[in-house]
Amino acid sequence: MIYADNAATTRLDEDAYKAMQPYLLNEYANASQPYSFSRAAKSALRTARKTIAECIGAEPEEIYFTSGGTESDNWSIKGFLEYGRRKAIITSQIEHHAVLNACADVERLGYPVIYLPVTCDGFVLPCTLKEQITENTDLVSIMLANNEIGTIEPVSELAAVAHSYGAYFHTDAVQAVGHIHINVCALGIDMLSASAHKFNGPKGIGFLYIKKDTAIHAYMCGGSQENGLRAGTENVAGIVGMAVALEKSVNSIEESTKRMLSLEDAFISELLAAKVDFVRNGGEKRLPGNINISIRGEDGERILHRLDLRGICISTGSACDSVNTQLSHVIRAIGVPDEYAKGTVRISFGKHNTIAEAKTIASEIIKLL
Ligand code: PLP
Fold first, then answer.
1. Is 0.85 surpassed by the pTM of this model?
2. Which end of the chain is more exposed for a tag (fewer CB within 10 A), N or C?
3. Is 185 a catalytic residue?
4. What is the DSSP secondary-structure string of 284-337?
């Protein structure tokens, strides 16, 4: 099998897996209990929180463990607006459904939401935000990198616009964390969502960075875990695995970026040599390893299923929404011409892919075309 759908999920890193094992088998104590058996679990949580904070330039007490990207996005949008300070939110048309559907929920509760358009490369322009933001805007939520086309948004400029109107700035960084360097202070971010399974960590665990003194409401009510803001017994093994995977990913970003670019080159040059009529989607500034192409007169679904028969996993549109076969909202928002749009596929490389695999995927696509 060739797995090239790493934007959907990644294989668990072996060091992360090994680090998790003791907390599943022997050190299984509830980290919130007062007896000495809980000490190892408590200390593991403390270390993981510190490691994760360092990886994004935050303080440990600003990291809140969640069940993943979807929960972090929902929390930052719903938990925040419950304070109802000024009750208006601005996001973009190309956000993940975790943000879009959370926004749809708050709209149903009566809060106005504005969905900003993007350029043909998928950029949310700060001047577009300036046109729509008002003193009534409570929150601006724009993703750090898009999951379909990989475009990296100008978040520091967008956050500056949000702050100049007194609004908070949240970013869905699920695709970016562990893949590009992030410093929440330098970027001016108030809240940031992340998910471990996107950087070779385990599934079902993630975090939300919440800048100190941000007045956010608790998301899960119950016990006093996570400073009373996100109740529930901690997933110690998951958290430990996430911290190991993140530290490893962040320490190898330069080397991994180089590798991803060579995989992209290997794939794209095969298509060019075979004179395939395609457009590459996403801006020049995009996530390394993300290739989103639209092939003229083709059908992305057909390509996906034919490649599947050959043991190759890729994606069309958004992998998180594979039941929905309509043209993806991102491809629509960036205005890919009709004759290309239906033939959209996403290949997302990860650290286990090789140049030979990149070439095989390209040659199998060429063969079936
Ligand atoms: N946000 C983005 C940009 C994503 O790509 C995803 C998953 O693909 C999510 C949020 C949801 O993350 P999770 O799968 O951890 O719930």
1. yes
2. N
3. no
4. SSB-TTEEEEEETT--HHHHHHHHHHTTEE-BSS-GGGTT--SPPHHHHHTT--
